[in-house]
Amino acid sequence: MDRLPFIFGKSTDFVNFTDRDEDTAQLIRNFKSQINTTIISPRRWGKTSLVEKVATQLMAENSDIKVCMLDIFNVRSEEEFYEHFAREVLKATANKWEEMAANAREFLSQLLPKISFSPDSQAEISFGVEWSALQKNPDDILNLPETIAKAKNIRVIVCIDEFQSVGDYADSLAFQRKLRSHWQHHHHVAYCLYGSKRHMLLDIFSNAAMPFYKFGDIMFLQKISNKNWGEFVRKRFKDTGKKIALKDAEYLAQRVDNHSYYVQQLAQQAWLRTETNCSAEIVDDALQGIKNQLSLLFVNQIESMTATQINFLKAVLNNETAFTSQENLQKYRLGTSANLKRIKEALSAREIIDIQNNVVEILDPIFKLWLKEEYFKK
Length: 378
Ligand SMILES: Nc1ncnc2c1ncn2[C@@H]1O[C@H](COP(=O)(O)OP(=O)(O)OP(=O)(O)O)[C@@H](O)[C@H]1O
Ligand SMILES: [Mg+2]
Prior knowledge:
Helicase, Ruva Protein, domain 3; 11 strands; Arc Repressor Mutant, subunit A; alpha/beta; binds adenosine-5'-triphosphate; two-stranded antiparallel ribbon; binds magnesium ion; Rossmann fold; single chain
């Protein structure tokens, strides 16, 4: 079977990647000139896809640049971080596993590293020293990219996805201080640290009291424009022998607020329902299908919220902005204005809403539609 056009749920491949020319150019410039970069955007707008694309392009064009990508979503402690970090840096900077093992012995000798292979031939690394010794002296590991870069005359870009996770480690501040104090002396390495929890990340990177303050550029990734999505969707249909009018392709993207993941998902569902010509009706039908599929999830989400949190979402959907006015506090039963602050914080922390310049946005466009068209209609 031919591969489906439109991909969601994993970072995109080249044919499914669109736009982001300026972001790409900026990242390449930063990486080449060793400028550390933080990327922040809500879930599923396209951070990972962008960084992976830039990494591939950069390595294809520059044989002396190695990009090391690590995702620390599931890395729950400082100790695990060191193992993960060492392993990925070693992997990214070696061509064969023998070279990787040799590098480990050469550059991490004091830690008595042992490399083993799991059945799916993933390399694992462990250290022969006690955790307490490692914790006190993680220099060799934290300096590993710089040490290898110098020794091999290459440049290394270390990209760490879901970086906000470090905020949850025991004694996180001390840990962040260690990272910063090592990494700021690296001249052959650039760091790209990214994730979706705006509040946690902003606290890490733009709070003057925090170790990572002014570590580098902060990029707020924006949504891909409706115009661009329209052209992209139309072209992908055309390339695979089907048709969609530009206005319908734009309508498709607009129905899901131009949200990257959902545009791809909706386009795929509409494509599957299309014999030769896709119409707005088919798009609506596909959207209804996705909404139905997700409704159970949304019910669970609603059940885990307090009554005032739900009331607040209703006010947001009604495009209210003056939440603290007596009228709205009463009309939507939001409690006191002090309460309102807590509601906003709780919903932001759960990534249900995002607040920028005092404008509140419900982040998941399908959840938003479901609330409007099903939940609050009853
Ligand atoms: N530049 C792009 N062009 C086309 N589709 C894209 C692009 N970026 C992202 N997407 C779509 O959005 C989906 C989510 O992208 P990605 O996983 O890169 O987002 P993310 O911001 O890293 O999300 P998360 O916060 O969940 O890690 C992709 O699977 C793909 O369908
Ligand atoms: Mg991601």
